Amino acid sequence: MSENASPQTPPARTPADPAPAPAAERRPTTAPPPESAGSRGWMQAALTERSAAVGGWVHERTGHRGAFDWFANRTLPGGARWRYVTGPVCLGLFAVVFATGLALMTGYVPSADAAWASVHHLERTPGGSMLRGLHYWATHALILAFAVHLGRLMLSAAFRSPRELAWVSGVLLFPLLVTAAVTGNPLSGSQKAFEQIEVEGAILAGTPGAGPQLKQVLFGGPQAGHLTLTHLYALHVAFIPLAAAGLVLFHLYQLLRWGTVRPEDPLAAGNPDTVNQAHSSEETPYVPNQMLRNAVAFAAVFGLLWFMAGRQPAPLDAPPGEGVESMPRPEWYFRFLFELRNYFPPEMEFVATGALPTLAILVLAAVPWIDRLGHRVGAAARYSIVFGGLLFWCVLTIGSMSRDRADRHYLEVRRAAHVRAERAAELADRGVPPDGPGSLLANDPKTRGPELFRAHCAACHAHTGPAVESWGPDHSIEASECNAANLAGFGSRRWMRGLLDPALVDSDAYFGCTPFAEGGMVGYVKDDLWLFVEPGSEEAEEKRTQIAAVAAAMAAEAGPRVHGGPPIALDHGDETFEPEALPALAEQGRELMIGDLSCTGCHNFAGEEYGDSLTLDGYGSREWLADFIANAGHERFYGEENAMPLYAPNAPVDGEEDPSNTLTRNEILLLTDWLRGDWVGRE
């Protein structure tokens, strides 16, 4: 019998009751058989008694029941309200952010060389993308929910005596939450992350007095690097959470000490000196009435977070690269400050980014004392701050976003950033090289090729047409001024057939806008190759067959792709020929070039070295094209007739690149591979 149980007096036996049997004749009482209903009731009673005994033992040693009495016995003046769910929802979101952040810490590396790769690895770990998405969206939801919570408390005058400190702690908690998000955004180590770091550093440097020193402390040096991510990481996972947890605990303590404001009490109506005294007859137990509302609201919010994390995972931009155009923008909650900067000269930007936000926090913290100036003053202050602040934020935020939506250049930069991010993820799925994620795109022909072409080739050459339509919009490049051939599909059978077509050879796609428009190659195609050939005749059909064979032979000279994918000879071909027939067709083309078509009269090819024009051995191959780009004036190519810039005419000295060359050998190979459609993923 437990210590709390009281002894019971057995009921008196009536005359009708039989006398008990002698002790010697009694049989020991046994439990009912397991299959009986009595057995189940006996077992349940035994388990209940044992659980109570264990619970009592734990309570005697810890006193845990008393620690939660305040929660079990808490009441709400005026009854449960749906509007009271804002605080518990914020607390639940804080727990989600904290828990998911702890989980993400197990796989994150705060290093400039490894941060991006570690985040990408987390994304590819089972459940990692959902985990990171929950952390990302819960952070945004927490900032929004906490702003709504502060607005509700402001309108209900929940800051009045004796709740001033609860209000001040909540006001101070809001910039801490935003700072936690700001320090967490750059931790991905992406291009956008380092752009945001530079923006934050510029804001710090603009602080009067110690601004430059603060920036150097944050960066760990004059520029962002390894220590920068380490410092941000320490702030994000240690210092800011500890400070926020302290404020949350103090805020909860104040809330429990003073209770909830009654909607109809004098305190909320305008008497700052009257403490809310709840009347038990008008109070509602917190559990389960308000608790159920809190659970429903948080379940709805968490369900939305789960949906967003699955449908729209946390973004991961491409790793940082040199020479990448960037137009950084802050997150939505700081867009109004970004817009506000436009109304100040550069030397006064600190007013927008530092002075005014600090002043706003101080005004919010002082609201309990502003409210004491009178009922009308207090009401005007409350409504002006909430609705005026909301209007101010909306106007500036919408204005900034609308300006970006109308800025074609900005939209193009963001689209290009999205393409780079997708390409980086595709390459990283095959493995991140030892020299870090930055080399993924730096050594990728599909990424670097268009950039190099625009910088060094597009002044004269175009790269447009059906041959590259499937490559994506970044790969169709118009020439600034047509002075040379269109290089889209260079070396393929389609490109070679066009070169030998009398209707195309002197067009802008080939020699039409070059100094060779009246040269020997154009004259040969128009006057010799198709001489006496009537359109639609058998001779015309035979000539087309010969040209297809020559095109196959020249495409075969381009050789295989280095990074995988089909040989160039199979690109943009004539559907009349099956791939199995191409080797024989190419051999036929070689014989025609040496024999009937007399190509070797001008060109060196297949051991025939009688020509003084472009060498066709290895035409379009990786080595041939790279050497051509490096020095088109070499005797193998155009020689003295060359009009192209010499991008790398000087050979390396002692294994070192000649600094006088415009392009390095690696850049030339990247451009070469791109022109040949040769990159990882083509297979």
TrEMBL record:
Domain Cytochrome b/b6 N-terminal region profile: 54-264
Alphabetical GO biological process terms: respiratory electron transport chain
Pfam families according to UniProt: Cytochrom_B_N_2 (PF13631)
Listed transmembrane segments: 84-109, 134-153, 165-184, 233-253, 291-309, 350-370, 382-401
Any single GO CC term annotated in Swiss-Prot or TrEMBL for this entry: membrane
Alphabetical UniProt keywords: Heme, Iron, Membrane, Metal-binding, Transmembrane, Transmembrane helix
Secretion signal, residue range per the UniProt entry: none
Residue stretches making up the Cytochrome c domain: 444-555
Sequence ranges of Pro residues compositional bias: 8-21
Gene3D superfamilies: Cytochrome Bc1 Complex, Chain C (1.20.810.10), Cytochrome c-like domain (1.10.760.10)
Positions of region (Disordered): 1-41
Gene Ontology molecular function, alphabetical: electron transfer activity; heme binding; metal ion binding; oxidoreductase activity
Protein name: Cytochrome b6
Source organism: Alienimonas californiensis
